[in-house]
Design goal:
Number of domains: 2
Distance between the termini: 55 Å
Order of helices and strands: EHEHEHEEHEEEHHHEHHEHHHHH
CATH superfamily of the largest domain: Spore Coat Polysaccharide Biosynthesis Protein SpsA, Chain A
Strand content: 15-25%
CATH architecture of the largest domain: Alpha-Beta Complex
Radius of gyration: 19 Å
Shape: globular
Number of strands: 10
CATH class of the largest domain: Alpha Beta
Largest sheet: 8 strands, mixed
Length: 280
Amino acid sequence: MKRLFLLAGYDREGVIGPSLIYYVTELHRYGDVVAVMDSDCCGAELQKLSPLVLASEGQRHGEYDFGSYKRAFRWAREALDMSSYDFCYLVNDSVFGPFHDIGSYLESMEQKGTDAFSMVLNPDRRSPHLQSWFMGFRPAVFMSAWFCTFMDGITRQQTKEAVCTVYETGLSWQLRQNGHTVSAFCNVRGKRIYNSVKSLYKAGLPFIKKSSFTRHNGSLGAQVKYVLDHADSALREAVLQDARRTWGEEYVSRFLSSNPFRMAIRYMQYLRTKVFREYF
């Protein structure tokens, strides 16, 4: 199978960190990669990806991941013969991983035979949707006029929540409206993709959300530590390097301390803050 991966990335410091290099290396093993960062990355940083990608770009555009998808897709349409690809993927770096060989997951999703698929589908009763951090399409989708129009029409939104509503949920709506079939490696309801780190990993999900490091006031440390303790040593070190750079060495050390009493205190503090915001 010939695959094209359009990767959207972001780093507040404009750094291409080791965990992103690890991720792109794994994607490169199974297809061509085009990377667009919503960050001001200097040439030296982008050079880190040059052996692994067809093209890369690093300039702050403020349109979040879908803005990067738009730019990568536009480059691919202009520079490549898109009809030669069996699958086109949209993936972003809001996750750490993969913690298992990604090849078997690609084959599993592709063999379902649907026009579109994702690593995770949120079966929300009102707006079920494919989660946009890892989704793939057959030519019936990515070569269609409506998909090109959708991608070209991506514009800056005021908030990340608006991006999710207009583009993530909106893309799944468009797929249904245009008669396409969809599937996913797994269904995950609500916020479980962020909060159920250990159980989803044990169920086979090969990624964890980066925000798991900070959610619920840092009370998910024991779950994240479980995953890292079972990870390939190179990936584990890459994740820790980027985590320490992003959130500080002291925070990461405390976060991964795995002390049940401290975890409980952090979670209670989170609940107290949440209740206060909701009612006051």
